[in-house]
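tool_call: predict_structure(chain=1)
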Amino acid sequence: MLACFTGQHFYLSICGIGYRDTHGYATADFATLLLLVAGTASGRLVQAHPNEAVVLPLFGAYKGTVYDSSLRWANPFDSKCKVSVRVRNFESEKFKVNDLYGNSIEIATVVVWKVVDTAESVFLVDNYEDFVHVQSEAALSMVQMALDKAGGGKGSSN
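tool_result:
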């Protein structure tokens, strides 16, 4: 609705049809211009919530990160990437392995993690949550293989 109203005033001012006050100034033109500038400026305000950061890339290049919860104005050409920096945990599935003496052992991991470098989490991996899951599963598989080799290869994966 606001866009239609602003567009109508802008069109009328281009055509020369507008409201002029006693001094000859087009108040509708000024109001339209003010609305456009205010809309553009307020649309680029950035605020990071608690335990959240906002990465600001400009045309694919890193330009900065906002960590605090105050309002910041960002370049209109910046894109915004929100990244959670709170502590998270991930529990892997259980694997069965045999130790050196042939005893069956179930192993699993609980990984507690958080994002430390927000720029790397945005630019170096596609999805940092999936990256943590895949890497922790790979590390657990390496432990499973090491235990299987120590047990003479008698382990089984579940």
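agent: The two ends are 59 Å apart (CA to CA). Proceeding to next step.
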